[in-house]
Structures are given as structure tokens and as C-alpha cells.
Amino acid sequence: MRLVWQLLAVMAVALVGQQGVAAAQGNPWLTLAVGVLTAVVALVVYRWVVRLTERRQVVELGGRGAVLAGVGGVLLGAALFGAVILNIAFLGGYEVHGLGSVPGAVGFFGFTAAAVVTEELLFRGILFRIVEGWTGTWVAFVLTCALFGLSHLANPNASAWGVVAVAVAGGGLLTAAYVATRRLWVPLGLHFGWNFAAGGVFSTEVSGNGTPPGVLDATLSGPAVLTGGDFGPEGSAYAVLFCVLTTVVFLWLARRRGNLVPLRRAARAARAAEADTVATLRR
What's the total number of domains in the chain? Predict the structure, then answer.
């Protein structure tokens, strides 16, 4: 029941925010304002619905160290995507022609803020966290990474390989970051840094959603295995390699910190949590 209530609450914000961002297209400052507002409202609604259905402090969005964790995630995400572009450029597949559109980057900032925050709350904050409580870390990791990849299948230039790459590289990296820290700030920052670097800075295709006008006027060319083709650099072999390596580091940290949940412990915790949720909703 808590899974359903939490998903419905955040999905409602995501849907309204998506409509608002779409309506603001063409006005970068309005897009920025609507996107940031959507992100803030989504965080507030998540806190509210988790407190209502689980009767606990929302420690995964705790304020202590949040700025440092979020900024660190942004820098790591941007650095990872920068490494992908650098390797593609080394082989002649990425060429900068000059400066692009700063207003375009401003609007993309708002679009990215709304999309990233709602996706992270849905996939890491709700789906992974609750499913992990039922099945343990590894089953939840595989299931939610697969769902994260499949959620990109409806994108205009999606491909089977792109979906697999997002599931393995993106879903794996972001979920591992949550498991290692048990907070949402690092995966939120990572996701934002990666996506904004892709579209807002390097002006490349973002998950098959088109090429936004970013800070740089640039083009990608070359074999799809290196550039990601129409899906964008997220489908590049470099992206998969770098993200998988970083995922391994986060999972290693998670194991050292004792953050991996075995199935048996998860089953006991799930029964207790569901009983508390039912009792709370009946009041």
C-alpha cells in the first residue's frame, strides 16, 4: 500500500510538472522556473507521503551534508560524461564549431531539474527502497535497473541497445550510489550532472530525446558503438564502461559500510513496515 500511495503522489507531481515544462517551451526563463518549482514540489510531496505512510523521519533526504553530497554528485556526473566526450573526441567523433545557445542551456537546466528529481524519487527513493525491503539488495537492484531502462523505451530515438545501456550503466550507477550512501542526494546530483553536461553543455542527444541547444555548438559522428548513434552518448561503449566501473566502486563502498540488505532480513522488515502502514492509513 505504501508503494502505491508514494508512487501516485510523486507521479502526479511529475505529470503536472511535465505539462508545465512543455507549455513553457520557447521561453527559457519560464522553463527554468517551472522545472525548478516541479523539482522542489516533488521533494516536498515525497517527504510528506513517506512520513504519512511510514511514520518515520525521511532520512534519505536528510539536510545534514546534503549540499556537499549533491554538489559532489553533480561534479562526478559531469566528469563522467566529460570523460565519455573526451574519448569520442580523441577518435574524431565529436567536433565543436563554436558557442551554442546560453538561453537554450538555461531552459534545459529547468527541464533537467524536473525530470531528474522526479525520476530519482520514483526509481531510487520509492521503487528500489521499498522493493529492497521485500527482496534484499540484489534482486531489487536488478529489477529496478531493468525498469529504469525500459522507462526510456518510449523516447523518440530509443533503441534496444540504448535501453540496455541505460539500465546497466545509468540504473546501475545511480542505484549503487544510493546503496553506498543510503541517501538520495548523491544519485540526484549524479543524474543531474550527467544529463546537464550531455544536453546543456555538450549539446548531444539525451537518452534519445533529441539534441537540445547547449553551451557548445557541436556535432557527433562515427560508429554508433562509440557515439551511441541516435540515442546519444549514453549508448556509447565508453559510457557503459565508465559507469560500470564507477558502479563497482559504489557497490564496494556499500559492502564495506554494511549497506547491502540480505533477503532474510528484508522479509522481516517488510512485514513490520506493511503492518505499520496499514495501521497508519486506518487511523
Answer: 1
